[in-house]
Amino acid sequence: MRQLRRTILGTLRDLAPVVVVILLFQIVVVQQPIVRLFPLLEGTLLVLAGLALLVYGLEMALFPLGDALAYALAQKGSFIWLVVFAFLLGFGTTIAEPALTAVASEAANAAAADGTIADSAIAKDEYTLGLRLTVALAVGVALVLGVARIVRGWSLPAVVISGYVVVTVMAFFAPPEAI
Length: 179
Fold this sequence. Notes:
Layout: H1 2-29, H2 37-76, H3 79-95, H4 98-114, H5 121-152, H6 156-173
Helix pairs in contact: 1-2, 3-5, 4-5
């Protein structure tokens, strides 16, 4: 029970900045009153409860299993399987992330409203899936790099600086709207 209470408090701490930013933009930037306060509070409490239960379940079941599996793969000396496991874990957890799904859907709506994509359900679904796959692939690759860095003993500053160099070079070839 103590662990559940700690998880709820941690989730509240993690969720608070998101709520503050949204309220701040609503009141200061958009300068509109908060309408339908009760549904907003009810939804926030449901999100808090859902996230807390999700994290609690992950900490109780999946995290220990993942730790044991990663440790067993490392002990076995199978770098390839460790990297495959890291990629699939990063990709799978990211593609299943409800917040990413919601943000990608909103991005698709914004792209449709802007005229970047067609304002159809199919175009929005493809855009949402493409964005989710891109982010999930990036997280998977980042985990592979992290595992490789730890196992191979690569310098963290060298890895980070290399990433900045790659992004800077890509900026020269990317379309202006992406930059």
